[in-house]
């Protein structure tokens, strides 16, 4: 991944409380890895109300949110941060069918994932109906290459509006981190997609067996990006 994309992804991880990005190549690439902590600080300050105006209330602590969720719910759990609203919430799996998992929040908003990759949303407004394309196979295999992605949305008149994109999948360095009592080692994978003037930059941490414990994925032009962190697989 490029330096800018890694910084952006690590800023999102900082908001969710994941330990700072790192790599066994940190000493060899100080321009990328040595600056990650500083790059994450402005985004974290904005998310927690830092800057010129004081925060009206303490931001939610992701570790505490995860601990409470683990104690209260035996289902698979994720922590989702919607960047457009600044909201971070725990979502529990409510159903699984043919590899598709539905995760729902207490306020009945839902994300649908296939193997950790977002394929749809419900209850958010401007929802993503479904995602097609061949980029997920490259991402989960941690393999660079060209791919396609099609986002489909249902407009207010009930007509499906497809958004086709061409994508370039790239593979970066390794990273180890811990969250919610679980340790992970994963590879940074980037997915850069274009459709006309629109550019989408998705980022993933992918394990050797194809799991995606952390990601930052684009929903749509109105909702923007969601950052996802696995609490319980």
From TrEMBL:
Transmembrane segments: none annotated. It comes from the Bacteria. InterPro entries: GfcB (IPR021308), YmcC_sf (IPR023373). This is YjbF family lipoprotein. Residues 1-26 form the signal peptide. Keywords: Lipoprotein, Signal. Pfam families: YjbF. The keyword Protein biosynthesis does not apply.
